[in-house]
Every structure is written in C-alpha cells, then in structure tokens.
Design a protein that fits this description.
Blueprint lengths: L5 E2 L3 H8 L7 H20 L21 E5 L9 E5 L8 H21 L11 E5 L8 E3 L4 E3 L14 H15 L7 H23 L9 E2 L14 E2 L8 E2 L3 E2 L14 H5 L5 H14 L6 H11 L9 H16 L4 H12 L5
Parallel strand pairs: 2-4, 4-6
Antiparallel strand pairs: 1-5, 2-3, 5-6, 7-8, 9-10
Length: 350
C-alpha cells in the first residue's frame, strides 16, 4: 500500500482557478496550474510505502511535542533549511511561527483529550516546511511531514493562517497510522472528513469554543478579500462555504440525496466528505458542550480502534460510530441516539 498525497485544496478548485483569464487573477491562474502539475507529478512518482503500524495500536503515555520547522525558500526541495525547533523563541516570520504553533496545538489536542502520543501514537516528531514553491496554492501531508505554500495573494493567502488547515493535514497522518483508509470513493471521503473533524476540533480546543460557539468552517482566513467566501468548507452547512464568480459555488452535498458520483478527485473525496462532516456536526450540536468530548471521542475511537475496514463505505462507518457510541455510553444513551439520528438526517442507512 502507498501513502496517499493529501492536500487541502481540492483539484476541482484549482482547475477552475487555472482557467481564469482575467488580468487581476493572472498570478492565481498561473499558481493553480503549477499546483495541479505538482499534484500530478507527485501522484505519478509515489513509491513510498505506508509504515507498517498495526491498526488500533495502543501508544505509550503522551510525551512532549518535538517540533521542527523548515524553510524551503521558494524551492520545492524538502525539507529545506531548519529555522525553528522545539523550545526556540518566535522567529518573526509569520509562516514559520504559525506552523510551529499549529503543530503544537494539534499535538496538545491528541495528547490532552485522546491520550495519543503524537500523530503515530509513538511520539513521532512533527516536522513542517514553509515557503514551499513560488506562490504555491496548497498545503499537504506527504506521509511524513506537513508542507505549506504561501498562496498566490490574489485568491489564496498563506496556508499557515488557518489552524483548522494544520489540524486537518496532520489528521491525515493519524488516519494513515491507524485505520489506513484508502484515498478513493467513500473511504477517501471518510478520510477527508476525519481530517475536517479533527481540524475543527483543534481550532475549537485552542479557542475553547463550545459546539454552539464554533464556526465549523475549514480553512477560514485562506481567501483574500477579493473572494466571496468564508472558507473552503462548512461542516455545519456543506455547500455554503463560498459562492464566487471566480471559484464558483461550493459543491459539497449535505446528504445522500445530493451525493456526487464522479471519477474526478479520486471519486469525489473532497466533495462527498460534506455528508459525514454534517453528521459529526449534528452529533455535536445535539449533545452540546465541547465537541472534542463525547462526539470527538466516538469518532476517534472508531478511527483508531482497529475494526474499521480500509475500504469502509459511509454505511459501514456510520454503523461503526453507532457501535462505538453504544460501547462507550450504552445503547440507550443520548450519545447513541444522537449518532443514529445524525446519520438518518444525512440519509446514510444504518
């Protein structure tokens, strides 16, 4: 099995942007074309095998974070020059310091809330590279580390600005080291949704926001003021994150009634993730309080428990979360009812 290349910007957004011919978006169109080319070249060259980590592995007691931030200096050579390591003071470079802080916030959520020892459960050092490429329109997890572009300045800002983006990409590592969900079709959409869930939870945990107070937006702050949109995705209301002349309208469905059947984007992994995203939001909304408590625990235990098939469908995943809720809280609990009701609302059969 090969490690998937998981990036935050869906290819359908980059393709749309690459087709722009308006002078005010010339840099953005060029950057989108280059980002698409990079994604294709990486997929064509992937030879890295996924680490052999048993599903459901139980880690040792969480240790301290071990962060390193590198600067690619506009090149596409990884990791780049080491510019800040664990315990060092801020550098004054926003991308470097935002990446460092985001890695720490993500480590803290997994350690404090779920008792997980870093991304792999075994104390994996957290490495990130900033200033990757020239006006690079993406951020990605490459199987071993985080990588952030600076954006094109016309449509996208630098990708370290959003805590949910950092948490999202690192969560791909958690999935890689636990359930190893394949990055295609419904399993791939669950993979993407897991990253949105934990990306949102990192942001909410840092800000100490309840489920009711949170925005439930993924990638808030990435768009420049020229874009009519709030974020890349909305977990609360999939399909409403943006509606822009350049980028088009957010295509995410909020239930199986609008499920998108496509061969693009590995079978629609970034589009159909809106369905399980909304299910998680509905559970958190119903239970109230902090989403990283009962809802987060149900999703985390389902992901890392060792029973989730790598090719899980939405129905298989929904049943697994309901079973986890019953195991943790009882089959007659409000948690179990909330999970079942959420999946029924988004029209996923249990």
């Amino acid at each position: 099995m090969h490690v998937p290349f998981c990036s935050i910007i869906p290819p359908y957004l980059l393709r749309r942007l690459a087709r722009q011919d308006a002078p005010e978006f010339s840099a953005a169109a060029r950057a989108a074309k280059e980002a698409l080319g990079h994604v294709r070249s990486v997929h064509a060259a992937r030879t890295q095998a996924a680490p052999d980590v048993p599903a459901g592995v139980r880690q040792a007691k969480p240790g301290p974070s071990n962060r390193s931030v590198f600067d690619a200096g506009g090149s596409e050579v990884l990791p780049g020059k080491l510019v800040r390591k664990e315990g060092e003071s801020a550098t004054g470079d926003p991308a470097t310091d935002e990446a460092y802080d985001g890695l720490g916030h993500t480590h803290r959520l997994y350690a404090d809330v779920f008792g997980r020892n870093s991304i792999d459960g075994r104390g994996l050092p957290l490495n990130a590279t900033v200033h990757f490429g020239k006006l690079y329109d993406n951020a990605f997890w490459d199987g071993t580390q985080m990588v952030f572009g600076d954006g094109d300045g016309e449509v996208f800002e630098r990708f370290t600005r959003s805590i949910s983006v950092i948490g999202h990409e690192l969560a791909h590592g958690v999935t890689q080291y636990s359930a190893a969900l394949v990055y295609r079709n419904q399993a791939g959409a669950i993979n993407e949704s897991m990253s949105d869930v934990f990306g949102a939870l990192v942001e909410q945990y840092v800000k100490n926001q309840s489920a009711a107070e949170a925005s439930w937006l993924i990638g808030e702050g990435l768009f420049t003021p020229q874009v009519e949109g709030r974020a890349l995705r909305s977990m609360k209301a999939p399909g409403t994150a943006y509606d822009d002349d350049v980028l088009g309208k957010d295509p995410q469905p909020d239930s199986m009634d609008s499920y998108v059947r496509t061969s693009a984007d590995n079978g629609g992994v970034h589009i159909n993730s809106g369905i399980p995203n909304r299910a998680f939001y509905l559970v958190a909304e119903k239970l109230g309080g902090n989403a990283w408590d009962s809802p987060g625990r149900i999703w985390y235990e389902t992901l890392t428990g060792g029973d989730l098939p790598t090719g899980a469908t939405f129905t298989v995943f929904a049943r697994a979360t309901a079973a986890t809720a019953a195991e943790l809280f009882g089959s007659d609990s409000k948690e179990h009812d909330a999970v079942r009701n959420a999946w029924e609302t988004v029209k996923v059969k249990l």
